[in-house]
Design goal:
By secondary structure, the chain is of the alpha+beta class. It has helices at 2-17, 44-55, 67-81, and strands at residues 22-30, 35-43, 82-86, 89-91, 94-101, 104-112, 119-124, 135-142, 145-152, 157-161. Strands 5-6-2-1-8-9 form a 6-stranded mixed beta sheet. A 4-stranded antiparallel beta sheet has the order 4-3-7-10. The longest helix has 16 residues, at 2-17. The chain is globular.
Length: 162
């Protein structure tokens, strides 16, 4: 009985410490380098739960047992849940890596050979498979013009026109 009460109490305390589920995706067009630079910030514990659910095994982003395998899992997850279409054409993101920042994880991707962005369509379902309360904020900057939107589960499509 004490174990059940402890789990209940800890769940309540954790809910107070982390009561919302938000991710932030930044997409910036670098005209000089002809790239789209993408960064995604997610709460690490939420991201680990989503990765564990998809891969049927525990994931520790702080101290991965196998960093190559963990990088592959992170890259595959991002490429499956963040899909970009630039000027009517599908593009493939290249996973650069991830880093931890306190309770968050930053993930970095890039798309090469993008000389101009007139229209960017995004499918963003990050962490939707783990949390129905998930909200994904997106900020897109092209030629110094920044546009933003919010997607809340189950909405996953956004379009930006420049």
């Amino acid at each position: 009985m004490a174990v059940v009460y402890y789990k209940w109490l800890m769940t309540g305390i954790l809910a107070l410490l982390h009561p919302f589920f938000v991710g932030v995706t930044e997409i910036q067009h670098n005209a000089k380098d002809r790239t789209l630079e993408i960064s995604v910030k997610l709460f690490s514990d939420d991201f680990e739960k989503a990765l564990a659910k998809v891969n049927n095994s525990a994931v520790d982003l702080n101290n991965p047992k196998d960093s190559v395998k963990t990088n592959k899992m992170v890259a595959a997850y991002l490429q499956q849940h963040l899909i970009l279409n630039v000027n009517g054409k599908s593009v493939q993101m290249e996973f650069i890596g991830y880093e931890k920042e306190r309770e968050a994880t930053w993930c970095f991707m890039q798309v090469d050979n993008i000389s101009a962005v007139n229209k960017l369509a995004v499918i963003n379902s990050l962490l939707y498979d783990a949390f129905e309360q998930q909200i994904n904020l997106m900020h897109v900057t092209v030629n110094g013009e920044r546009k933003s939107t919010k997607l809340a589960f189950p909405d996953q499509k956004a379009e930006f026109v420049f």
